[in-house]
Every structure is written in C-alpha cells, then in structure tokens.
Amino acid sequence: MSRRVYLDHNASTPVHPEVLAEMLPYFADVYGNPSSIHAFGREARDAVERARERIARFLGVAADEIVFTSGGTESDNLGVKGLALARGRGHIITSRIEHHAVLRTCQYLESCGFEVTYLGVDGYGMVDPDDVKRAIRPDTIAISIMHANSEVGTIQPVAAIGAIAREHGIPFHVDAVQTFGKIPFDVHACGIDVLAFSAHKIYGPKGVAGAWIRKGTRMVAIQHGGDHERRRRAGTENVPGIVGFGKAVEVRAREMGPEAARLRALRDRLWDGLRARVPEVRLNGHPTERLPGTNNVSFRHVESESIVLGLDLKGIAVSAGSACTSGHVEPSHVLVAMGVPLDWAMGAVRFSLGRGTTAEDIDYVLECVVPLVERLRQALPTAAS
Amino acid sequence: MRYSQVLVDHFLRPRNAGLMREPDGVGEEEYQGCGDLARFFLRVRDGRATEVRFQAYGCGPTIAAASVTSELARGRPVEELVNVKGQEVERALEGLPEDRRHAADVAAGALRAAALDYLGRRGRHV
Asked: What span, in angstroms and rounded, lies between the C-alpha atoms of A13 and A205?
C-alpha cells in the first residue's frame, strides 16, 4: 500500500503548517498561566486575547463575546445547558438530526424536568422553519438547530429559523462546528444568539473550540472553578491550542472561498463517477444545499463497514454511516430521521474532502470503490449466480 | 490494523463466494444483533463435502469468516461439520477482536445448518 487518501475531514483535519508554526513557541517558550500577573503570564494572556480578537473579527462580533472551551461538545453543552439552566424550567426545540453533543444534552435536560421537542426533517435532512414555528409554546426557552449536519452535510435554513426565534424572543443556539470556517455566514443576519464552533475541523488543533454568546444573552456557566473566560468557563486556557485556533481562523479567512469552490467540483466529480459506475447508489443529503466537501453515499445491500475496511486496505480513509459495536449495529440516527430505508441506510459511507484532496485522489477512490462494491455484492445472499 | 493478515486476505479475496445450483445441503444463520447473515451450500460425495460455497452479508470479518469456513469444511465428512464451532473458525482467522466474535459464530452456525440440512434430506438426523 503506497497511496494514502484521507476523506474524513468532517471527523478531523490535519493541522495547517502555518498553524503549527504559530503554536510551537507556546509550549516551552511562552508557557505562563494567562491568569498570572507576572510577565510570563502576561505574554500568555496577550496571545490568548490576540486569538480571541482574530476569531471575533472573522465572525463580526465583539471579542469579549467569545468563550474558549475544550471542544465542540463542550461548546454545545455550554450553549444548550447554559441557556436552559439559566431559565430553570421550560421547553426546548431541537431536531432529530443534531450531533449527540446536543441530542444527549437535551435528553439530560429532560431528566432534569425540561421538556424537549425533537423536530423531524425532510428526505434531504432539512428542518422546516414552519415546524419550528408550530412547535413554539409559551414556555419555550431555547431553540437549538445545527447549521450543517456532519453526516450528510445538509445546510439548515438557520436564517429563517433565527428570524422566527427573534420574533418570539427565544434565544437561538446553533451548532456550527461543521460550517465555521468552511462557508460564510453572518451570525447577526441569521438571528443567532449562541454559536458553537471548533478548531480541529478547520486545520487547527484538537482540544480547543469556542462559543460565541451574544452580549445580553442570559446564560449560566456549566463548569465551575476560577474566574476564567469572564466567569463563563472555568479552567486554565489551552494557550497553544487557542493560539493555533486564532491562526487557523486567519488562514480560513484567506482560503475558505477558493477552497469551497474547488471542493464542490471534486465532490461532484466523485458522485458523478459513483453513480455512473456503480449500480444502486444514492446520495444522502441535499443535492445543492450541502457542505462543499461532503458526499454521503449509500451502496444498497452492502454493509458500510465492509466498504470502510476494503477502502482502508487501499489506504483510503472514509467513515461508515452505521456502526457495529459489540455485535449490535445501529443505522445512523440522521439517515433514520431522513426516512432512508434500512437496506440503503446500512450501506451509507461518508466521503468528506478537504484542502489536501486532489482530482487524482478522487479518481483513485473511484478506481478502488467500484470493484470493491462489485465484489462485496457478489457474495451477497441476494446475489444471483 | 486490528485484523490478522489471514482475515484481511480472506476479506480481499473471498474463496468460494457465490450461489450453488441444486446443492445437496443448504443452511443459513443470522446474527440478530446486527443483521449479519451467512448462507452455506454443500455438494456431497461419499459423505464428504466436496464443494462448499457461501453467500454473506455483513462487516469485513463476517465475509472473511464465511470464506475461511468454506475452506476448512471442504473435504471433511458432513457428520463432522455439524460440530464445527465458532472457535474453530476464529482460530483459522488467527483471532478476532472481542466485538467481532459473532462473525465466526454466524459462519459456523450457517455451515452446521447446511450439514444438518443434508443429513436431514438423507434421513440421518444427528
């Protein structure tokens, strides 16, 4: 095996060389605690605040509205629990296709006495803003809808949902982990109040993320301790990570536009190649309102993990839409919510492209996946002789 | 790689995959937990399985387990095949991760079912 092709960028991305270079001094040279008042601490504090400024500028918000966290999951927990617990009781609206960071947080809040409506989606994985409007009750205290789904890439109509939230005076939380730094959006025009976003999906380091909290939004902290992050998130800041995050955002501001156009073309090249050469395939997700680098493809009757293994043996990294854990397989909750039939959902594979993906990579993937699926289908119980 | 070279080889180049016309014995096993399924076909001469074919649906280890099972069954007396257990298949694959052991059980169960089907047709219940 010589060639290696990484098509799992929605899971994580390699750290950009410029990001790594900017981070390195903050491990052993500038190592003070940003909360310390001596020179060592002040140097670290300056670095953290520079990164905060960079991210705030990118989002078009005030720097003191940005809170650094340890990851997208923590940002989602802070957003949803922070809004709910500040209100004590009430009703939350979310969707059935959210990341587990939101879904399981909502389930936890249900166990605490909150009520939650989980909205369905259409066949493309899109939430209908009218469903949001219909679900609003007098005691609705928060709406949480993701910007783009990590599995199928469908981009949600957050501006329309945000307008409804604003009209009813309900705070709107958006999990933008998959869109931040990939496609442009305006938090103000979209009526967003709390935003979750992460570094390692955009060529930054793992272990650092952010939450933007619109000034005046009533929230409580969910992690308690020191007075860090203006008492909104206790814990010593991950200085090298935050520095890297700031740099990653600066690079994205430069590269995001041209890269999106390039990835859309490659994504379509892959899908066009698959549907031309493999029988019984379908694209899961919206045909156009979709993340630039995401193709979720179902190979009917084939088990997705066998495709992941077959491609892994060819040096290609993709992810399975169904996961077999300890002999129990669960089709993706997103595909189930979209109404994808089981014989298709079990064969779903996500190809997520990124800045290093080339046309040659796509052609190599096609070269490998076509005979692999053919061979797997030959052994199927449904196959003719 | 969490799988043995033997497993990978059988996954990449499954032996004896496909349907058999008019088999002397056929049987299948499904693992309810995840829907993995194997089906075996036997051609029997003088009480021995002279040809063994399989069809399988499931993750990579299930396909490899069915393939290796088809090899370990060929040439053996059918009465012996009703005693093939998942452990024998797992040994032939040089091991399976804990969460994939069901792959060996599915393949062994389908082979046993095919052997019993043959013996049943002959009126030789065991």
From this structure: 9
Instruction: Work out the minimum CA distance from B10 to partner chain A, whole angstroms.
Output: 11
Element holding B68 (H helix, E strand): helix B60-73
pLDDT of residue B125: 54
* pLDDT interval class at A379 (50, 70, 90): confident
Nearest CA in chain B to A379: B55
> Does the beta-carbon distance from B63 to A376 stay under 8 Å?
yes
**Cβ pair A324:B21 closer than 8 A:** no
Q: What is the pLDDT of residues B45-56, one digit of tens each?
A: 999 999 999 999
Assembly ipTM: 0.78
Q: Is residue A385 very low, low, confident or very high in pLDDT (cuts 50, 70, 90)?
A: very low
Exposure pattern of A6-26 as b/e (b: 16+ CB <10 Å)?
bbbbbeebebbeebbebbeeb
CA-to-CA distance for A118 and A91, rounded, in angstroms? 11
Q: For A178-219, what is each residue's pLDDT tens digit? A: 999 999 999 999 999 999 999 999 999 999 999 999 999 999
User: pLDDT tens across A19-33, in order?
Assistant: 999 999 999 999 999
Q: What is the pTM of this model?
A: 0.91
How far apart, in whole angstroms, are the C-alpha atoms of residue A384 and residue B4? 30
Q: What distance in Å separates the CA atoms of residue A253 and residue A262, rounded to the nearest whole number?
A: 16
The neighbour count for residue A118, using CB atoms within 10 Å, is 16
DSSP string covering A48-103, please?
Answer: HHHHHHHHHHHHTS-GGGEEEESSHHHHHHHHHHHHHHHH-S-EEEEETTS-HHHH
| Residue A324 designated active-site | yes
Averaged pLDDT for residues A305-325:
86
- Give the amino acid at A29: D
Q: What is the mean pLDDT of residues A53-70?
A: 98
Rounded to whole angstroms, how far apart are CA atoms A259 and A275?
Answer: 24
Distance from CA of B123 to the nearest CA of A (A): 27
What is d(CA A153, CA A127) in angstroms, rounded to the nearest whole number? 13
With contacts defined as CB-CB under 8 Å, which chain A residues touch B34? 324, 327-329
CA torsion angle A362 A368 A370 A375 (round to 10):
-160
